[in-house]
Write a structure and sequence with these properties.
Number of domains: 2
CATH class of the largest domain: Alpha Beta
Oligomer: single chain
Number of strands: 13
Structural class: alpha/beta
Number of helices: 14
Strand order of the largest sheet: 3-2-1-4-5-6-7
Order of helices and strands: EHEEHHHEHEHEHEEHEHEHEHEEHHH
Distance between the termini: 17 Å
CATH superfamily of the largest domain: Glycogen Phosphorylase B
Shape: globular
CATH topology of the largest domain: Rossmann fold
Helix content: 40-55%
Largest sheet: 7 strands, parallel
Length: 407
Amino acid sequence: MAKVLFFFTSSYPFGTAETFIENEIRYLSEAFDKIVIVSNEMIQKQTRIVPDNIHLEQKPYDLNKKDKLLSFINFFNLLFWEEIYIIQNTYRKRITIPIVNTILQSLQKSRLWKPYITNLVKRNCQSTDSIYMYSYWNNDMSLILATYKTANKNIKVFSRMHGWDVYFEANDINYLPFRSFIFKRLDHVFSISEKGKMYYSILFPKKVLPITVAKLGVPKQELKIRPNNPCFTILSISNMIPIKNLARLVEGLSLLTIDFKWIHLGDGNIRNEIESLATRLIQGKFDFKGQLFHEQVQEFLKTQPIDLFINVSKSEGIPVSIMEVFSFGIPCIATKVGGTPEIINEQNGILLSENPTPDEISQCIEVFYQLSKKKKEEKRMEAYKTWENDYNAEKNYNLFIEKVLAL
């Protein structure tokens, strides 16, 4: 009897996104006899090597125009009306056209994916196999798996949830579909933060939800003692998209009175805008490295002296980038959003407010800069200890798998 895992991702192992799965996949491949990764990425090429017991499939996540039009048929689905009732009576929200469209299209995806998953299982499993299904995000894939579970009760189905797939307010329409149904049907949901778990305990106070915290993790690295360097070096790592608030960071950096260099790893659709702003406000003091593969980021952190990491995002789960730099003993300044306060404290860094002004950003950087060499090294050591105690990949992923196999 084999243990078979169907693992649903947004892009991994294609393209450059979801780099954090690279830390997890090795442990999954050791725990399961066979893994089928179903990626929603249809354009980019495979860029990551996967273990030998992994088979790859690709299927688009978004509906085409025809299926969006046909989604109206789900007006006759009882789940549509149950969700409308929950929105009005539990969430106390007004029903809007974008919310209705979201519900209808989520149900349409679930309807269209069902025969695909049935065939996927048939092609990859024997009748005696133990089957597990894992959605990396708590999005419509979780709904699809929850619906499939309804008619296939022997299959173990679970999901992670991170940041944007947790908080209603992180989404344009201030809503995420079918949370109640997902929590009712999935065997378990693993939140990467205590904040995410608490969010739904407050939203559904009368329900016992199948949610536990299962933190992500990164591999062990060598603790780096910062060498003397006349130029104070600040690092950030993120996609260059509006929610990462990089324009505000540039404005804050422009107010610094110290000599500094800002290095950013990552790319995105507002890079030109941020580059123009940086050229105007901090010309000669920034270096955009663009999108790097995970191995390149690791090599950069190993070889480049960094004084301080900064994250001013408007919304987060718990940033894996902070776990990464902590594994090298690099302190961090970050906004008090999502689960970030669970990883940042006054011992290993500095917490900014949720929506810091440029003045607040610059002042916090200068406060760190003015710390004595001894205090800075203490923060570096505390950053490393935070990784060691809470975000060690080997410890966290083995514990996660232990919980999954016990479902």
